[in-house]
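We modelled the chain as a single entity of 368 amino acids. Its sequence is:
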Amino acid sequence: MLLLNKFFSSYSQNIGALLIASSVALSPIAYAKAPVTVEKLTNAPLNSELAVHGTLYGKQDVKLTAGVGGLLTYVAEPGKEVEKGEVLARIDTLPLELEQARQQEMLNRAKINLQFQKQELKRLKQLAKSSSTAASQVDKVQQQHDLAQSDIALAEIELKVIADKLNRSTLKAPFSGVISERYSRSGKDVNRADELLSLIDINNLEARLYVPVKYLKYIKKSMVLPISSGSLGSLDKTDTTVTAVIPTTDPRSQSFEVRATLPKPSNQNWAAGQLVDVIVPLNSNQAELLVNRDALILRKQGVHIVRINKDSKAEQIPVTVGKGQGKLVAIKPINEGSLSIGDTIAVRGAERLSTGQEVEIQKGVNAS
């Protein structure tokens, strides 16, 4: 029994010594300051970007109609490059030429009739002076004279109408471009409203893009939008200039149309109908609180950042997050006035920090 008591006494002393040693060894770790890297809270306008897709179109793209009814005798082929004023289609003019000849004869008859009525009116007026003819007869001839003049005017107008039809029977290119599609071939009778050709304006391309309506205030005429297309290995890039902002919103997509013109020297590298990537700068004139996005701590109850006060202690500040640009993001404190410009914010090492916990700013990190 005595030996057993000595054993337990020695065992208790050893256990006590081990516990004291353990507490001494662990105490520096339990109370060590947490290392963090920090940055200053800044205040500046946030300039972000919006990437959207667009499509290239010719500014003057048009589907050309016959202009006058008749038999097609020639229609240009798809793919043909044409210059302004070049003939694209012809319509048989024989019926119009015959109509023009008939109307010319009608004009000649009206002129002959007018000449006769002039002579007859002059003779009756002379007789009327000597009371040799009735005034009613003079009035009747005067009326026929005026009607003959009107017939001449109508015939001249009709000749102008026929001349216009003859002019439109030859379809000419309104601008230089490429025939993209042909809807009718020669030998077919067409009406004046029938579509014959589609002409693409390859020399004046513009990008048409649709932007969410909430960004309407950021886009103005004459601003520059960079566009790109192709693979990463051979990416084509150029700058476009906004020429039109159409503030009409599509009810489903809630977007509005923007048109931006490509510079002419670069048109040869792009094609009408091509899809392009467009970068829309969203420049804000209102200054916002900006912080490195690595400083954001995401939790179920919300988002917060950790401010380091003058005593090198952590303070959790709940915030709402706005737009971002690069590594910066706009924030707004939930409790107004809880943040100030120039506050020191923990960027790394803040995930496990609690309010009041002491920290150690790592050397070599610029906190100014």
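As a brief sanity check on the tokenised model: The radius of gyration is 44 Å. Residues 17-30, 364-368 have pLDDT under 50 and may be disordered.
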